[in-house]
Design brief:
Layout (H helix, E strand, L loop, with lengths): L5 E4 L5 H11 L3 E4 L3 E5 L13 E3 L2 H7 L13 E3 L2 H10 L4 E3 L4 H11 L15 E6 L4 H9 L4 E11 L5 H8 L3 E6 L2 H13 L10 E4 L2 H6 L7 E4 L5 H8 L5
Parallel strand pairs: 1-2, 1-9, 4-5, 4-7, 5-6, 7-8, 9-10, 10-11
Antiparallel strand pairs: 3-8
Helix pairs in contact: 2-3, 4-5
Length: about 250
């Protein structure tokens, strides 16, 4: 790990605060720099139609749906969550039947295909009664396409928006200028893209030569390849605990 004692955390709120606390527990100074600003836009109506299951590809989707349970969404609907964090968020929201994938869209699609067969329930047209896919605006298009290719009827429901941050927080910019940041954590491709754009805009690209970029997946690591990071490392599995293990405890 490069010199320095501070870690840049680019995850959006409210998850950013959770990651900041986990980084601090390892002995590092955590500097919050959320790349995205999330806002719920879950529709209050239209959820009463028949559906075989609800797919949650992110924690943000689960949080956005919490106010709809049980008035508009049945708590007992089968839920397929992308990973453990999303599954925990779904249970906190009130869902009672939650199946857990392995942390990415491919494993979520595979889990649905293993548990459900397309076209078995009548009344839903091609592919049978549809799956609901609760997602952010512009997200999960590939997941929906992959499930449709397997024969499932899928209805995407936009329940939140993720707007890019307009600038780095001043604390983060100052820490980078002072050479205090030794690593940056990236949990999504879009966060990685937006953060790098903000770094270029702030004239801080050269400071990254002393910063390790730690990514939650090889796909995210690929997004980071265009900047002069000291090194880029990716977790073997898309799990936040694996990302913290890449970071490791702060040196004495």
């Amino acid at each position: 790990m490069p010199e320095g004692r501070a870690i840049l955390v680019t995850r959006p709120e409210p998850g950013c605060a959770e990651t900041v606390a986990a980084v601090a527990a390892l002995g590092w100074r955590a500097v919050a720099a959320p790349a995205l600003v999330l806002s719920s836009c879950a529709p209050a109506t239209g959820w009463g139609r028949p559906a075989r299951a609800l797919l949650l590809p992110s924690r943000a989707a689960a949080r956005a749906l919490a106010p709809l349970i049980p008035a508009a969404l049945p708590a007992e609907i089968p839920v397929f969550a992308v990973g453990p964090g999303t599954a925990a968020e779904a249970r906190r929201a009130g869902f009672t039947d939650v199946a857990l994938a392995e942390g990415d869209a491919a494993s979520l699609a595979a889990l649905v295909a293993a548990r459900l067969a397309p076209g078995k329930e009548p009344g839903g047209g091609p592919g049978g009664v549809p799956l609901w896919l609760a997602t952010g605006r512009g997200y999960s298009l590939e997941l929906a396409a992959a499930l449709r290719a397997r024969g499932f009827a899928v209805r995407r429901r936009v329940v939140y928006e993720a707007r890019p941050a307009t600038a780095l927080p001043e604390e983060a910019a100052a820490a980078l200028r002072a050479g205090e940041i030794c690593a940056a954590l990236f949990l999504s491709p879009r966060s990685a893209h937006v953060t790098q754009r903000l770094l270029r805009r702030a004239g801080l690209a050269e400071q990254l030569r002393a910063v390790a970029a730690l990514a939650l997946s090889p796909r995210i690591a690929g997004v980071l390849a265009g900047m002069p990071w000291q090194e880029i490392r990716a977790t073997p599995v898309p799990d936040s605990s694996a990302l913290l293990a890449l970071l490791g405890p702060a040196p004495e």
